[in-house]
Amino acid sequence: MASINLIERILEGFDPVGNGLDNDFVLTKLTAMKGCGCKVPRDVLLQLLETFKTDLVINNEEVDIGLDSCVIPLRHPGLRLVQTTDFFYPLVDDPYIMGRITCANVLSDLYAMGVSECDNMLMLLGVAVALTESQRDIIVRLFIQGFKDAADEADTKIRGGQTVRCPWLLLGGVATSVANESEIIKVDRAVPGDVLVLTKPIGGQVAVNSYEWIKKNNGKIEEFGLDSAKIMTAFKQVCEQMCRLNRNAAKLLHKYEAHSSTDVTGFGILGHAENLARVQKQPVEFIIEKLPIIEYMDEIVDKMIATGGEGFRLFEGRSAETSGGLLIAMSEKNAKEYIQELHSLDRAPAWIIGRVAAKTNDSVARIIPNVLRQSISSSL
Amino acid sequence: MASINLIERILEGFDPVGNGLDNDFVLTKLTAMKGCGCKVPRDVLLQLLETFKTDLVINNEEVDIGLDSCVIPLRHPGLRLVQTTDFFYPLVDDPYIMGRITCANVLSDLYAMGVSECDNMLMLLGVAVALTESQRDIIVRLFIQGFKDAADEADTKIRGGQTVRCPWLLLGGVATSVANESEIIKVDRAVPGDVLVLTKPIGGQVAVNSYEWIKKNNGKIEEFGLDSAKIMTAFKQVCEQMCRLNRNAAKLLHKYEAHSSTDVTGFGILGHAENLARVQKQPVEFIIEKLPIIEYMDEIVDKMIATGGEGFRLFEGRSAETSGGLLIAMSEKNAKEYIQELHSLDRAPAWIIGRVAAKTNDSVARIIPNVLRQSISSSL
């Protein structure tokens, strides 16, 4: 396969016919749940995982299943196994882009812990039973190519995996690093006075869903009086940011001495802020005062709410992101430099979106009432 | 949850009502494909994985995706990352037993390479969308308990995973070991004169399917004139062997200097023998002369073939096994001692089922015409 220019491909949009598929072929029809929107709700999950509770202390070190990656002291002195897995369903039409997103999304859990070197990737694939052999071959090849290109960009290799048949097209991976302790940042050291940094805008779920309304021609565009051109722009914007690795963001966590870090995915920005708060050594409050949102997505949500809808609970911080940005607590001075240097590396903005306050007991996270919404336009 | 005696539980059979489920609840209805029977066909898979071909040499060492686990030289001298993943769908009714089988099946890929210490397990779970919340909670808890009990037995821990919703109940895991080179056996050293050893009988797919015919009451028992009592016995037999870890079998590979080893799962005994032949340094032929088969399963297959059926292609060596035994090439003298010691540890038989012959070019595997069938009765 010829080399693929990611940004060109995103801007051109996916052409099923040019890729050997029927004109009306839509990858996202191969699932009823999109991307990280398929997660089992967080409270249910925590309850079901109770069985593991007795396992949570090894070698006198707490290892928390709630973190982005598990970190395991190995039999070999000084080394830790850092490992994460993720799988989900297609949320964009282009299997190549889906491969990129899937790989970026899996790697992000390593990056959230400051681990920038992935030693191995496994690829997980459930091939939708409804596909014809010809469709299967086209889609799987494109997906693998995208997954591999993202792995190449991350300087890692795919060395195994599992491929089964499944009613939905299931896509995922496992990322593993055997790291020295110094490669892993401590994510539980947030202190009052820190600020919160976010490295990608939210609103991804709104963007992929409203794009699908256009594709499905299901009347929602007209119902809410939406601007299709703006949705198309937002969709390309979210595709680019979902494909963008959080690797530079991870490397800079060390340089700018981040106190705490996670990535924003299926539980929404507040869900992940809550998860991160829960593991802090010192009781703190993560206060989100500003929500950077992909341009026009806030307007869509406003219109949905105006007609009695939930608007994906975006403003509540509960809308799922796929391959979202890092959410970081660090000193304000460092945050400003972090944002500046990340921008020079990734050519994409990041923002201070809140602060860390003292608390006397259990740590929490919240979004302030009348949170400031910042509309983030595409740089493509 | 109270401690669960595996063998008692297998012998008693699964009682949905006693576990809070409806009387007619059948776990295997939550998938159309059972266990390792869901794999994408081997030739299709190899073709689709072509994209990875350029990746197959790192550090001047070949790492073959076709092996049971990937083995990756790490940045840390002398250490290898050995890793495998597997996921599939329920093939028995009892979610607890399914958890045991799933974990044993994933671990088996490490064990096939002689690696007996697993440093971390991840659990992969797709919760069937058709389940009520109450069913979900019961099933997931039992599954997790079984998975954890098997991990305990393997002296390993579950430290992470992913849980999504899925049309089918999807079950799996990732097993990882960071091992010294000496912990890994070379699986590509079979030589003419070796014998082939198998550590669990085949016929698992026949056993779980014929058991399902009874549960579904779909007329097949009558159609083929089958003995339900014998099927029930075979089903319990296969449950026990699917739950049985190949860990002792793995440890003894070192002691008895195995030249080559794999585990028998979704591609059937011949498929895995072929995979193993393909990676041998020296051209050889794996010749299977005897098929140890779970008692009565050969009779079922005979009856299916007599009426024009394929009989799961059991006698061709193509019937899928789930959490099957190890298939090993070693010297005849060592094989006899291996089998004896394994029996004393696992209280289960193993057999010499064939031999390794010289070949002038590409290695192959085959089953001889009129292969001897050995009926293996349950020891429960």
Low-confidence segments of chain A, given as residue ranges, are 54-65
Question: Percent helix among the residues of chain A?
Answer: 25-40%
* Total separate domains of chain A: 2
- How does the helix and strand content of chain A classify structurally? alpha+beta
Number of strands of chain A: 13
**Shape of chain A from CA axes?**
globular
Radius of gyration of chain A: 20 Å
What's the CATH topology name of the largest domain in chain A? Phosphoribosyl-aminoimidazole Synthetase, Chain A, domain 2
What portion of the residues of chain A fall into strands of 2 or more residues?
15-25%
Distance between the termini of chain A: 25 Å
What oligomeric state do the depicted chains represent?
homodimer
Using CB atoms under 8 Å apart, which protein chain pair has the greatest interface? A-B, 62 and 62 residues
Main β-sheet, spatial strand arrangement of chain A: 9-11-8-12-10-13
Per CATH, the architecture of the largest domain in chain A is Alpha-Beta Complex
On the 0-100 scale, what is the average pLDDT of chain A? 89
How many H/I helical runs of chain A?
A: 11
The first-level CATH class of the largest domain in chain A is given as Alpha Beta
> What's the story with the biggest beta sheet of chain A?
6 strands, mixed
Q: What is the H/E string of chain A?
A: HHEEEEHEHEEEHHHHEHEHEHEE
Supply the CATH superfamily name of the largest domain in chain A: PurM-like C-terminal domain
